[in-house]
Amino acid sequence: MALGDRIKARREELSLTRPQLADRLGVTPAAVGNYETGISFPREDVMLRLFDCLETDPNTLFQDSFQAGSQVLTQGERQLLEDYRGLSPLGRESVRAVLQALRSYQAELEESRPEHRERVIPLYRTPAAAGYAAPVFGEDFDYLTVTDSVPQAAEFAVRIQGDSMAPWIADGDLVYVNRDPLKAGDVGIFCVDGDIFCKQYYKDPAGTVYLFSLNRNRADADVVLTSGSGRTLVCFGRVILHAPPLPGKA
Length: 250
Hints:
The protein has 250 residues and is α+β, with helices and mostly antiparallel strands.
């Protein structure tokens, strides 16, 4: 069972609606829907609340995401989550309060910096293309200084290798990515069974996910994940790009 299916199944076991779980997590019902369908992955602070709300633990809820090679969480992050679950309710509340204070402090520092400061974002070292091993998102990167020509919404960058997304994304291009929810036709960075892909996203009513190559001469590099296949799919973010229509939708 995939991560999103486990979240949904546990929520239904507790007789929680999506809006009810969203209210407890401090996110929107649409965000919960994205977690359950595999379009996006909860942030670290949301994951902590998710374990409490679903009355479960990382090894149970995120079992599929911890498979060898998927690299969704590092060993250090997993240990932190285990330590958190071992705390008393008061201890967990203290951790959340400290985390919130640190995030507020970081936001204040960002706001107080001069307007002319250099802007940097992570550039992940491993290329995104069919068949390449997954980088450790959150660790395997260098900082990239960017100019005003880079979209302000960009949260990180990935270098693309191969021609499966040409001519919209050429071999060697940098793509800029944020963590906005994906909709049909968006291009995203995906981890499928431990491999990283840059593809155009579509999910049909039957639950089959299609990851299309923009270069239709490279349709052989498309990825199709049927519902119940047991394959692992995680979306790391949406590529900031005006993509062409989906194949067959023009």
